[in-house]
Design brief:
With 285 residues, this protein is of the alpha/beta class. The chain has three domains: 131 residues, Trna Endonuclease, Chain: A, domain 1, CATH 3.40.1350; 71 residues, no CATH class; 79 residues, no CATH class. The protein is built from 13 helices and five strands. The longest helix has 20 residues.
Length: 285
């Protein structure tokens, strides 16, 4: 799994996520911007940097490293790059801090003695995801980070729980969180297609990227009928996965529904426990 890519997507969507991991976040944490920066002479790029707002004077710059593979010289590199960037931009920042995110302590660099002052002070923060607690008790954005470390057998169940929780909390970022859960699952289960992942998670038609594309394209004249067919086929696949092969009569009934009614069905099917529930629902339409 390409976890570094996933984590950087998380930080881009919600920069405040880093500061939920720290004991003493800055007062203006919500105003920070996640970015990558380049340092010249010698030239190198730092991908995970949280920059304070420029209109508030000098502030603290935060460097973040996501490390899921062992690296015997990680601290040497991170501290050297961070110090050099801070030196080159001293007029912009009053201080610098570093956060290293590990799945567990077993990945951490063993020889840390040369860096004892930094590691034992308040300037470097080491986060071990497996020590943050029960994934179901964590803030949603933090739980997404922990989801990347869950074993393959438990992952679908935990992902479904986070989806349910996202729907219940119904925040402005719900759509983004659902897409991030999908991204994490697609990376972990590379042998499955996105639609198969959606079936595994029980994601409704309304929540899928496919549906958003269908809805948008369906607004164009002459394309509504084709999009309705694609939506009906997706719902039939979900129902078949849950209850087994559907009769031709039921398939025909679903295929004849309009796109708005299919949207209602995609939500209602979450409460179905048998084909009888589906048949009763179709009678009312």
């Amino acid at each position: 799994m390409r976890r570094d890519s996933i984590f950087y997507q998380l930080f881009q969507q919600y920069p405040g996520l880093l500061f939920e991991l720290l004991t003493n976040p800055p007062i203006n944490a919500d105003a920070y911007r996640f970015d990558s920066v380049a340092v010249k002479e010698p030239k190198f790029e730092i991908d995970g940097v949280f920059l304070p707002p420029e209109n508030e004077g000098v502030g603290v710059v935060y460097f973040c490293e996501v490390q899921f593979q062992k690296d015997k010289r990680l601290y040497e590199r991170v501290f050297a790059e961070s110090s050099l960037y801070f030196y080159r931009n001293r007029d912009r920042f009053s201080d610098w801090q570093v956060t290293i995110i590990y799945p567990s302590r077993t990945i951490e660099q063993r020889d840390i003695y040369p860096h004892r002052s930094l590691l034992n002070g308040g300037q470097v923060h080491r986060i071990y995801l497996d020590e943050l607690g029960n994934i179901r008790q964590l803030p949603l954005w933090v739980a997404l980070m922990v989801l990347t470390t869950v074993n393959e057998e438990q992952m679908p169940e935990e992902a479904r729980y986070l989806l349910t929780r996202t729907r219940e909390e119904s925040s402005s970022s719900s759509r983004v969180i659902i897409e991030m859960i999908m991204t994490i699952m697609v990376y972990r289960f590379e042998q499955l297609s996105p639609k198969e992942i959606e079936l595994m998670l029980g994601i409704t038609l309304k929540e899928t990227r496919v549906y958003q594309e269908i809805k948008e394209e369906g607004r164009q004249e002459g394309r509504q009928e084709g999009r309705q067919e694609e939506a009906a086929n997706l719902i039939i696949r979900i129902l078949t996965k849950r209850f087994g092969e559907l009769s031709n009569e039921i398939r025909g009934s679903i295929s004849g529904l309009s796109l708005p009614v299919l949207e209602d069905l995609s939500e209602a099917l979450l409460d179905f426990t048998s084909l009888a529930d589906l048949e009763a629902w179709l009678v009312t339409k």
